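Friendly challenge for the regulars: who can give me the structure tokens for this chain first? No prize, just bragging rights.
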Amino acid sequence: MANPPLNANSTDPVVPAIVGEAVGTALRGHSTNGPGVSAESDHFDACIANCHSATNSAVAAVNDAGGFGVFGLGKRGVVGESVDADGIGIFGKGPRLAGFFEGDVEVTGALSFAFLN
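First reply, four minutes later:
Bragging rights claimed.
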């Protein structure tokens, strides 16, 4: 094999198998037929992202071919929660609709309407 895959193991739960640090991109994945990056965990979140910038996101997803930017599949497909007293749990913005719901909608708090032109 000309370029064998990188394999690393750690049996210590607080020591990562691989660490990468860089001034630019620390980790990049690309595939022509499968996931560019794949992660899974048996007992914790499969992927965790932390951003230390007030003007950027911890996760940014872009689909330039017309598909979904973010897809969530599970008991709760997508969950958004704000820890800021003035924050917004989920924000949607679109040229036609900010949100679309297929099925019943349940609201447990106040529902506000602001008509803007």
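The chain is about 0% helix and 0% strand. The mean pLDDT is 92. Your move, everyone else.
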